[in-house]
Amino acid sequence: MELVEISKPHFDVEVDMVYATTNNFTGSKVYKRPGCYLHPTAARLLAKAIKLAAQQNLKFRIYDTFRPTEAQLVLWKHTPDPNFLADPKKGSPHSRGIAIDLTLINTNGEVLEMGTAYDSFTPLSHHGSIEISPEAQQNRYILLGIMTAAGWDFYKNEWWHYQLFDTKAYGLISDTSLQKPMM
């Protein structure tokens, strides 16, 4: 499977691949190399979402996209919580190249308030949580509206996670399938 690299100038987004840093819930680097890739269908939907966000003077900051099956196993071994991570035996939409974790930023590059940090594995991260500020609720609704209008499905437990519909129609992809491995 040939994945599409998500980078400028083709995609006007900021990329902060947190699993290539220690600034993630594991406290360790999961990826040796930051790679931001999506399945071609997902890349087309991202391009549509970028245009919709621009109409609101907003952009995206991307935290994760394609996640090799080997990386999914590392995350699962650290935190085997099926409410927030897919069991590697079943496969994650990330490991199929059809999921994206992202947030909105304004024209100054500042992250909009979303009520929790990325990868905050608590009920406060659920879509529709009313235990967060009205501003954060509004920003989540804007993100949800943009992404669903562009054709993405959402995961109810994570305000940052969007994926293609019919995830099982796409095969799992390992790190060894990449021209330049990430692991």
Structural features, described:
The structure is a single chain. The model has no long low-confidence stretch (mean pLDDT 96). It is built from three helices and seven strands. The chain has a single domain, classed as 2-Layer Sandwich (Muramoyl-pentapeptide Carboxypeptidase, domain 2), CATH 3.30.1380.10. The protein starts with a strand and ends in a 20-residue tail after the last strand. It has helices at residues 40-54, 69-78, 134-149; strands spanning 4-5, 14-15, 37-38, 59-64, 99-105, 153-154, 161-163. The protein is α+β, with helices and mostly antiparallel strands. The protein has a five-stranded mixed beta sheet with strand order 2-4-5-7-6, covered by helices on one side. Strands 1-3 form a two-stranded antiparallel ribbon. 22% of the residues lie in helices and 13% in strands.
